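Record type: monomer structure entry
Structure origin: computed from sequence
Chain ID: A
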Amino acid sequence: MTLQTEKDLAKLSQTEVQVTAMDLYTVDCHTKLAESTGDIFCVVEPPRRSTGRLLMHSLAMFGREFCYAVEAAFVTPVLLSVGLPKRLYSLVWLLSPILGFILQPVIGSASDYCKSSWGRRRPYIITLGIMMLIGMTMYLNGDAVISAIVSDKTVKQTWAIAIVMLGVVLFDFAADFIDGPIKAYLFDVCSHQDKERGLHYHALLTGLGGALGYFIGAMDWGHTALGTLLGSEYQVIYFFSAVILVVFLTVHLFSIPEVPLGKEDSLNKESDTSLLLKPNVHSNGYGAVVKMPNGNHEPDIRPRSFSALSEANSITPSVKQPNQEVQRRMTLKSLMTAVLSMPAHYRCLCVSHLIGWTAFLCNMLFFTDFMGQIVYKGDPYAEHNSTAYQTYERGVEIGCWGMCINAISSALYSYIQQLLLPYIGLKGLYFTGYFLFGLGTGLIGLFPNVYSTLTLCTVFGVMSSTLYTIPYNLISEYHQEAEVSRSEN
């Protein structure tokens, strides 16, 4: 293991190898001499990161999950309180995933080639953070603002519904999308060991952020001095959410330096860990050196994409991509091609991840409404000064305490995972999370009692920690296994 500078790396030209001009990278050269080819493999890895830097990087997940907790707890009650019909409020939650399915892989692939001086990921993180703030402003303050400027009841209700719905869709899309570039940012600037540590810190702070968000939501701010000063409990919750999001996202952006893709003195446009091969390799797959028409050799190396589909497609065997370079930019067409052509283990992981998130979000987004209507027998459509509506609000507050229990258990389970990992492995942890979640939600549906429901909220945290960490660790493991297998061959 040696520490190389740009000048040292440039000397490797005698082996006809191109490398990335990072500021200071650890070069771990695994040399294997094959009788027929004599291939030499060199993997350029980022330096080790301190615990403090990784925690600073993870603060973005704290802020994101805090705001997510506020959304999960209050959006459904807010939508119902402004008069949105029951048959439509599920449609609001459907719009964001549809937009995400179409746009996330395309924009994610575009970020792989972003040449901003701030790097490939951080410009997207900033943009999505601003979108989250705007969306949160609209759905938490839209009703109050419209009520202040519009007097006609019918017009007021129409505009309030439109503003709140638009805010929910904007926030939900940005909050879902921002997770990808945050994790790609981590993967770009960290070594394999630090990626695992970073993901565990992400899970820990995700749980703590959600716990604090639900705790803030569970408190009755309407009768406090801060509630009187700002106008209502929704404005108090918005104040806390906006401050935490802005401060923690700013810390995240300055946590670990990110080398720009278009750096002028770079010898190559590859920006992080890359596989470097001698030009006598005949494969045209990911990381291979292909012979150009002018006789020169050029490494077919692509920047890491933050979509699982792109990562899977990047290591698809070369027999599926004969005699041509892999398509560099993701489009909707190439996305569907990647789904169909990716290795079986990636496809299984994507399908199970889809099923897991579908089940988890269905539970989380309607849990506080479930507590208010089913467990407490309240009515969200009743007059706001009626007993039925106040009972519903009490159920929503207790539901926030349940979500707080969920977030705390998520943070605790992220550490329990590390203890269980040597015994049952990543796939064992994955199955355990799904099994406990299915068992717990089934019991809640059969026995909708306040105390049993709150107790079983712990299994939500197990599922949350599983979804936020295990699939990404599996992808990293699959990719590393593929790299090792290719180097051995």
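Annotation 1: The mean pLDDT is 75.
Annotation 2: Strands lie at 2-4, 25-31, 40-45, 275-276, 289-291, 297-299.
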